[in-house]
Specification:
Elements (H helix, E strand, L loop, with lengths): L11 E4 L3 H16 L7 E4 L4 E5 L2 E3 L19 E2 H8 L15 E4 L2 H5 L4 E4 L6 H4 L12 E4 L5 E2 L7 E2 L1 H10 L9 E6 L4 H6 L3 E6 L3 H11 L4 E6 L2 H23 L4 H23 L12 H12 L2 H14 L6 H8 L6 H15 L7 H11 L18
Parallel strand pairs: 1-2, 1-7, 2-6, 7-8, 8-11, 12-13
Antiparallel strand pairs: 3-4, 3-5, 9-10, 11-12
Helix pairs in contact: 8-9, 8-10, 8-11, 8-13, 8-14, 9-10, 11-12, 13-14
Length: 396
């Protein structure tokens, strides 16, 4: 009998270390350490910042400021965030109070982080992709696979304004650094995952949207823990689009909350929103074998529900509606700056782009909720018009 081939353990890189990136690191670190399928160490790319502990809290220099002339931030008492993470095993800025597994190693150099990696997990704001991915310079291993946790979407800038999946964008950008005729096979992880709750160990589910069962199983092994149940579906586009579209519906839920409407109204918004999400997926990605079952997975209805009850898009939309009703409206940029501690509000940008895509297809009649959310957010419609769509005919 010949010896069985030796399978080298997977080398895992995590690209991103914000709130969600640090939270998912708590699962990846546990599984990398205990499972022989993976190398023990997970390298986590961190956008380098400088921090200082003052009066019981970690602070950063004011946004856009520079250190005194001729000096660095370290010279004036700040410490690189990567150093703090590696010494304290805690992301003191984006996930304070949660211990990271000690085999998560923060790395400020993106190329070093991915060198030789066979599995790459992406958790960075999608506007970071264009500047960051080219710096990887194709240093990952031949045949490497990737998984995007990025809940966003890009759109063509003209023509049909067709939505572009972030996973497709990542694949295309990484291809530029690859010698040879192969692509990074991309999956996605989406679901009802409020980062702080996942990090604390509250039970949650997630969905892997993958291209084949073999890679789906690899990702499940990396992410699945006793308090984080991960299942795979053979539907990248459906799972990923759900992760972006739900932020638009959450604006509607926030408007409803801002108006003081109750659970019945919000339930209607969620149900109608889910139907319009499914229609949107089929309209633009019907050629990618969208699975109806995907919308009943964590990435679909569950993520939509949690986003419509918690999350930044709902919260900011509630503030927006309250301001309009009180006669003291606040702009989205002001609300974002005041409420989100440097994080970005995704639902508003997605709403604008979704509307362009719907208009380009002349499909407004099929998306009454999305259309009305856009009117309230950007066209001056009163928030209470949310429930007046189509008059007595109702939504559907």
């Amino acid at each position: 009998q010949g010896l069985a081939p030796v399978t080298m353990p997977e080398k895992v890189a995590l690209i991103g270390s914000g709130n969600w990136g640090s939270a998912i690191a708590t699962k990846m670190g546990i599984n990398a350490a205990k499972c022989a399928d993976f190398e023990d160490t997970v390298h986590m790319w961190v956008f380098e910042e400088y921090v200082k502990f003052v009066d019981g809290a970690w602070i950063r220099p004011a946004r856009g400021s520079s250190p005194p002339e001729g000096k660095t931030w370290v010279d004036v008492g700040y410490t690189p965030l990567t150093q703090v993470i590696n010494e304290k095993h805690e992301n003191v800025i984006y996930l304070p109070g949660i211990e990271l597994p000690h085999n998560i190693v923060a790395e400020p150099d993106i190329k070093k982080c991915v060198t030789g990696a066979t599995m790459m997990v992406f958790v960075i704001p999608h506007n970071f992709l264009a500047p960051i991915v080219p710096k990887m310079e194709g240093a990952f291993a031949k045949g490497a696979i990737g998984c995007s946790l990025i809940k966003g979407i890009e759109f063509e800038k003209d023509g049909d304004y067709k939505p572009i999946l972030i996973s497709d964008l990542l694949k295309k950008e990484m291809k530029k650094g690859i010698d040879g005729d192969w692509d990074v096979d991309m999956s996605v992880l989406m679901g009802a995952n409020v980062a702080n709750e996942v990090a604390k160990g509250d039970f949650a589910e997630a969905t892997i949207g993958c291209t084949n069962a073999e890679n789906g199983l690899k990702w499940c092994k990396l992410f699945n823990t006793s308090d984080f149940a991960v299942t795979a579906v053979n539907d990248v586009a459906g799972a990923e689009l759900c992760g972006a579209m739900k932020n638009v519906v959450a604006l509607g839920a926030g408007f409803s909350d801002g108006l003081g409407y109750g659970g019945n109204t919000k339930a209607a918004i969620i149900r109608i929103g889910l139907k319009e999400m499914q229609k949107f997926c089929e309209l633009f990605y019907g050629d990618r074998d969208i699975q109806k079952e995907t919308f009943l997975e964590s990435c679909g209805v569950a993520d939509l529900v949690t986003t419509c009850f918690g999350g930044r898009n709902r919260k900011c939309a509630e503030i927006y509606a309250k301001g309009v009703v009180a006669g003291a409206p606040k702009g989205w940029d002001v609300i974002e700056a005041e409420e989100l501690n440097g994080q970005k509000l995704q639902g508003t940008g997605t709403c604008i782009d979704v509307m362009k895509a719907i208009v380009a297809k002349k499909a407004e009649a099929d998306f009454p909720l999305f259309v009305q959310i856009h009117k309230i957010a950007f066209e001056g419609a009163k928030p209470e018009t949310l429930i007046e769509i189509n008059g007595a005919a109702g939504y559907y």
